């Protein structure tokens, strides 16, 4: 509620200028309806007050007052009061994501059959099925980081390129996780549609910079009994302010990852469309209806 009040504004504020002629007409109507105005010019006001029956009291519930209230409420409704921003109905529903895949000799270990790298690719393919149509890109890293594919809705291309990666194709040995996350963040920024980063790794180096620029999720490609106790991954998750997801033998991990990627970060804006604010003027319709009901009183039009 406080946030809505802080962002309260009118979508069409120029309509509020119509309040000025409304006040002018209301004042002229009251002046013409004042039957004692002509007598004030010839009779002392102190004496006139005692010569007029009910001269001091003016009914607040009068046709001119009610007409002014209805006019002002109608103008406020047309001006478009709003205080809450909502996603555009034409905006892209799925958030982009960048997959960051570690391609090092340790990923060839067979404690996850057939290998850790193959298991990562299998989980990646399962995740792409759940994210059907969502733009997804790929960064591969060992001692250096490389952009394999910018975000694309074509899951088959990403799966094919990921399947061709191997440690002996990487130009330098090592573990450049920080550079890979930075490269993935830059790819998302170039797209201008938000998104998040998912890292597939079995270990991590000591990182000094934790500013990824996008939400990060760290997926531990290790046997479940080892993933929870791997200190390097825990330290990297802390530095990157990342969520950690552990591998499971069923599809629970993939479902959790799909949910995280679908909700992480701000929703992508529609192409060529800025912020969209929820129209709230219709909430004043019942007030206008109540004001209109008073006009059904007997003798009201004559008044």
TrEMBL record:
UniProt keyword list: Membrane, Transmembrane, Transmembrane helix
Q: Which Pfam families match?
A: VWA_2
| Record domain VWFA: where | 98-203
Q: Which SUPFAM superfamilies match?
A: vWA-like (SSF53300)
Domain of life per record: Bacteria
Q: Which InterPro entries match?
A: UPF0353/GerABKA_families (IPR050768), VWF_A (IPR002035), vWFA_dom_sf (IPR036465)
Q: Which residues cross the membrane?
A: 12-28
| The keyword Transmembrane is annotated on this UniProt entry | yes
User: What name does UniProt use for this protein?
Assistant: VWA domain-containing protein
């Amino acid at each position: 509620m406080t946030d809505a009040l802080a962002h309260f504004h009118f979508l069409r504020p120029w309509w509020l200028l119509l309040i000025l002629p409304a006040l002018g007409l209301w004042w002229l109507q009251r002046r013409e309806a004042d039957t004692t105005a002509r007598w004030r010019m010839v009779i002392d006001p102190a004496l006139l007050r005692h010569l007029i029956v009910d001269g001091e009291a003016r009914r607040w519930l009068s046709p001119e007052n009610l007409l002014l209230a209805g006019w002002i409420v109608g103008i406020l409704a047309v001006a478009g009061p709003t205080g809450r921003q909502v996603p555009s109905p034409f905006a892209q529903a799925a958030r982009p994501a960048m997959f960051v895949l570690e391609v090092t000799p340790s990923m060839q270990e067979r404690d996850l059959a057939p290998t850790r790298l193959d298991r990562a690719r299998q989980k990646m393919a399962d995740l792409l099925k759940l994210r059907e149509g969502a733009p997804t890109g790929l960064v591969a890293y060992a001692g250096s980081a490389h952009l394999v594919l910018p975000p694309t809705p074509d899951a088959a291309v990403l799966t094919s390129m990921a399947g061709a990666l191997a440690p002996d194709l990487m130009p330098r040995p090592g573990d450049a996780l920080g550079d890979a996350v930075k490269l993935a963040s830059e790819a998302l920024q170039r797209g201008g549609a938000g998104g998040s980063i998912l890292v597939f790794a079995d270990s991590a180096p000591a990182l000094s910079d934790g500013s990824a620029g996008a939400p990060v999720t760290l997926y531990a490609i290790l046997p479940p009994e080892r993933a929870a106790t791997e200190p390097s991954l825990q330290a990297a998750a802390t530095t990157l302010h990342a969520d950690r997801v552990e591998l499971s033998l069923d599809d629970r991990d993939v479902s959790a990852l799909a949910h995280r990627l679908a909700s992480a970060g701000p929703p992508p804006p529609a192409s060529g469309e800025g912020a969209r604010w929820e129209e709230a003027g219709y909430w004043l319709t019942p007030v206008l209806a109540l004001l209109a009901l008073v006009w059904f009183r007997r003798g009201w039009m004559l008044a």
